[in-house]
């Protein structure tokens, strides 16, 4: 008699699990960039340069190429595509990142490749009268943003990424987070903009309340703050001062959120305003930063103070504005004017 206990259960065969598929090269680049908390702009630029480098060399794998191929690609950009030196240097930075951080190839010739020399040009600066003429042509939210750029000296992206919690009305100051070089700094809040900015934030808060009522209202948080403080993404203080009109899908997380206003809309508006004001100089939002620095120095403030307000690491960077003060060539009176 065969009992249940005497029946042997066959053992399952030893199955060796298949190794996980290795991510494709461009996905490896993305992962390496996100691991280092680089911006989405940097991610897109580096991935694009990696793709163009591979296609230029007929889809050869970068590990099978070296200095000669990089130089050939950069020469193609400079000679045939006639790109700017900054663009050429960005392409080189992307390839250095590819070899060192993604492929783990630390080759000494990477540091030996010469970077394109950037031309030393003086910044475009508007006079006080020209600045006022351009600002008069800008209204609404974009006009408020342009006045903030000129009134504080902040950069364009610092303005569009500004959070509600970083505007301090009682102290009349604005804290600019994670600026160039991943540095924070404090600048003034112009008294003339206090009331318009408060009125603007009331409208933004109503928009945020409507988003919350629909089960939305989250905003992107830097680094791991979203994991550390799960509720912070919905809090009023973390919202953008200048949010976008519509919702969008985060390309990294896939979440539907309200991002900040697209900086291109301000760039287009400023160029249009300059044309309408009959300003012949090339004007962009960054021109307001240059004008802020020059006009502040011209008002008698010391250069170290201006350096801190602008967030310059080296005072020599700030010194360039002493060459474009409203005094003519280096402040020297022409001998013709002495006759």
Automatic annotation (TrEMBL):
Residues 20-103 form the Core-binding (CB) domain. Pfam families: Phage_int_SAM_4, Phage_integrase. Residues 121-334 form the Tyr recombinase domain. GO terms for molecular function: DNA binding. Residues 1-20 are annotated as: Disordered. CDD domains: INT_IntI_C. Keywords: DNA integration, DNA recombination, DNA-binding. GO terms for biological process: DNA integration; DNA recombination. PANTHER family: PHAGE INTEGRASE-RELATED (PTHR30349), PROPHAGE INTEGRASE INTD-RELATED (PTHR30349:SF64). Belongs to the 'phage' integrase family. This is Integron integrase. The lineage of its organism: Bacteria, Pseudomonadati, Pseudomonadota, Gammaproteobacteria, Methylococcales.
């Amino acid at each position: 008699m065969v009992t249940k206990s005497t029946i042997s259960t066959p053992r399952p065969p030893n199955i060796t699990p298949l190794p996980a598929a290795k991510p494709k090269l461009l996905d490896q680049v993305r992962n390496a960039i996100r691991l280092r908390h680089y911006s989405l702009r940097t991610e897109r630029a580096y991935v694009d340069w990696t793709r163009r480098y591979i296609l230029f060399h007929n889809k050869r794998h970068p590990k099978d190429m070296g200095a000669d191929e990089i130089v050939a690609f950069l020469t193609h950009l400079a000679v045939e595509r006639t790109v700017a030196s900054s663009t050429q240097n960005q392409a080189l930075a992307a390839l250095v990142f590819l070899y060192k951080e993604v492929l783990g190839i630390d080759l000494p010739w990477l540091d030996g490749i010469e970077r394109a020399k950037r031309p030393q040009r003086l910044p475009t600066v508007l006079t006080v009268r020209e600045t006022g003429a351009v600002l008069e042509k800008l209204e609404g939210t974009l006009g408020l943003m342009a006045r903030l750029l000129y009134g504080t000296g902040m950069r364009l992206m610092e303005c569009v990424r500004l959070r509600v919690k970083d505007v301090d009305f009682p102290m009349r100051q604005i804290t600019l987070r994670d600026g160039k070089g991943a540095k924070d700094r404090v600048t003034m809040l112009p008294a003339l903009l206090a009331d318009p900015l408060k009125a603007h934030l009331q409208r933004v808060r109503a928009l945020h309340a409507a988003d919350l009522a629909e089960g939305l209202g989250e905003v992107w948080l830097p680094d791991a703050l979203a994991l550390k403080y799960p509720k912070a993404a919905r809090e009023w203080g973390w919202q953008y001062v200048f949010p976008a009109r519509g919702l969008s899908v985060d390309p990294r997380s896939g979440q539907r959120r309200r991002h900040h206003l697209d900086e291109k809309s301000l760039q287009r508006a400023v160029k249009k305003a300059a044309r309408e004001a009959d300003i012949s100089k090339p004007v962009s939002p960054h021109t307001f930063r240059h004008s802020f620095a020059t006009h502040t120095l011209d008002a008698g403030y010391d250069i170290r103070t201006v350096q801190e307000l602008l967030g310059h690491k080296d005072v020599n960077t700030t010194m360039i504005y002493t060459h474009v003060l409203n005094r003519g060539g280096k402040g020297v009176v022409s001998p013709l004017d002495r006759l």
